[in-house]
Amino acid sequence: MEEIEARDELVFIKKVIEDSRRMIVYDGNDFIVWGILVAVGMIAMYVNIVFQYYLSPLLLWGILIGMGWVYSLIRGFVVHRRSHERTFAGKVISSVWLSCGIVMTLIGFALPALGVIKGWEIMPLIALVTGIAYYITSIVITEKWVRYSAYGWWIGALLIAAFPGKYIFLIYAGMMVCFQIVPGIVLQRHYKNQFVKQND
Predict the structure, then answer these.
(1) 168 and 160 in contact (C-beta within 8 Å)?
(2) What DSSP designation does 200 have?
(3) 38: exposed, middle or buried (C-beta count within 10 Å: 0-12, 13-18, 19+)?
(4) DSSP string covering 21-64, please?
(5) Are the CB atoms for 45 and 57 separated by under 8 Å?
(6) Is the overall model pTM greater than 0.85, yes or no?
(7) Do residues 72 and 30 lie in contact, with contact meaning Cβ atoms separated by under 8 Å?
(8) What percent of the chain lies above the pLDDT cut of 90?
(9) 20, 21, 80, 107: least CB-packed within 10 angstroms?
């Protein structure tokens, strides 16, 4: 009886790992799109401050984050509903990023509006939450190198919190490229190639 239970557990674990590898093929696109949107926003914020264009940060981020959410919701509906089954690993990863995305949106919009945090405190807090999402993702997809992105986000959060100023926007944009866009591209290519080989 114990042997059967142990075998079933091993089969379940193997299925979770295989499911996670299939799921992350799609998630790479989300990393890239969100990374580009936020990086553009950070550069725009820096340019806005340096050249004093007086662009409303609320309007800027409202548009960019709104675009990101629309993309994620539409893509989530179209891509995931098209599949006949939703994998357990896929549910975990989707739930992690959805919950962290909601928290980051609240940090960026609701908490400053309520006077709980100041504007410059938004970025380090969001970076900390992003690091959590990456750390959990690295465990689910069993890719240790993805965990380095989590470490990068946490270290970056400490740096931009310790040295506030206009240059933190450029630093954060660089973090988005290094720890979000590049990992997204690598994951996308790696697992797409693996997925194609599995179907050959």
Answers:
(1) yes
(2) -
(3) buried
(4) HHHHHHHHHHHHHHHHHHHHHHHHHHHHHHHT----HHHHHHHH
(5) yes
(6) no
(7) yes
(8) 56
(9) 80
